[in-house]
TrEMBL record:
This is Methylamine utilization protein MauE. It comes from the Bacteria. GO terms for cellular component: membrane. The chain crosses the membrane at residues 40-59, 66-83, 95-113, 133-153. Keywords: Membrane, Transmembrane, Transmembrane helix. One of its GO terms (biological process) is methylamine metabolic process.
Length: 308
């Protein structure tokens, strides 16, 4: 039957997006988007797996209505992310803007067009529906919880302090700054005192805005700081002591970090990392970083948690 085949396709789509999020957790967490939080990412993966199983196993009429509700909600989230220029992370952090919204709206349209296909099926009373729904719901909840737990485990694994994490976010707080394993970077970072690492991508619009704001905001606050700018191009990070720019500027003291033998951390948005005595004490990424630099005393606020 047409809807039965269609709901299997919807389940596969949800499972695929959940798998992409779980396997690409470092990229999603480093994107600075809606899912750039371990808790939010784990909950999103768990919900998608729960919804996929329930849509595949529930009675057709209930599955149709539940799928319409789920994809309508996802379309609203994707629309909000697109309008606010936030990456929703639905298909991983490198998804072109607007693609999740187009996919969700297409699914909603197809579900509305197929609304009458299953109406003649399973017009059972509440008790019969409950019996048909009890087992699928139990399986769906179990699968969702396992998926959420698996995602948290994956995030813990890629955030191991024994190696360079594949994402730079709140997971760094309290850790020795990872790039200190590079000898040249260790020489550029002061052994004691405060340092601010500013990581910007050449192809990031928000990064260019942050660079434009850099010189005009609170210059006096930066006098007591050692500032290290990093231009984050794929496979080639240009370190610029005392300079902040999304593009290498050709200064004499800049140098390059490459990632031939180690998995490259994914940086998709402006990232500020506050370091004190070589220990990370504060991190701001994505929209938080863009908004932070527009406030007064923003450097003090970034280091504030360590001062309390």
């Amino acid at each position: 039957m047409l809807f039965d085949a269609g709901r299997i396709c919807l389940s596969v789509l949800l499972m695929l997006t959940a798998a992409l999020k779980m396997l690409g957790a470092s990229a999603v967490l480093g994107s600075g988007g809606l899912l750039a939080s371990p808790v939010r990412l784990s909950l999103a993966v768990g919900f998608e797996v729960f919804a996929a199983v329930l849509i595949a196993m529930a009675p057709p009429r209930f599955a149709h209505r539940f799928a319409l509700l789920v994809f309508s909600a996802l379309a609203c989230i994707a629309a909000w992310a697109w309008l606010t220029q936030a990456d929703c992370g639905c298909f991983g952090a490198r998804t072109p803007k607007g693609v999740p919204l187009i996919v969700d709206l297409a699914v909603v349209g197809l579900l509305l067009c197929s609304r009458g296909l299953g109406q003649h099926q399973l017009r059972e009373g509440f008790n019969l529906l409950r019996r048909h729904l009890f087992m699928p719901a139990g399986i769906a909840v179990t699968a969702g919880l396992l998926a959420a737990g698996g995602t948290m485990w994956q995030i813990e694994r890629i955030s191991s302090p024994n190696e360079i994490p594949t994402w730079f976010g709140d997971n760094l707080i309290g850790m020795w700054f990872p790039l200190l394993c590079d000898e040249k970077f260790a020489e550029a970072m002061p052994a004691t005192g405060d340092a601010l690492v500013v990581m910007l991508r050449p192809d990031c619009e928000h990064c260019r805005e942050v660079a434009a704001e850099w010189e005009s905001r609170n210059a006096g606050q930066r006098d007591a700081l050692s500032v290290i700018g990093i231009s984050v191009a794929e496979g080639r990070w240009t370190v610029m002591p005392n300079e902040v720019s999304p593009m290498p500027i050709g200064a004499g003291d800049e140098f390059v970090i490459t990632w031939e033998d180690t998995e490259e951390p994914f940086i998709a948005a402006p990232t500020f990392i506050a370091v004190r005595d070589r220990i990370v004490v504060g991190v701001a990424t994505g929209k938080d970083a863009s908004e932070l630099i527009e406030t007064n005393d923003w450097i003090r606020k970034l280091f504030g948690a360590a001062d309390e």
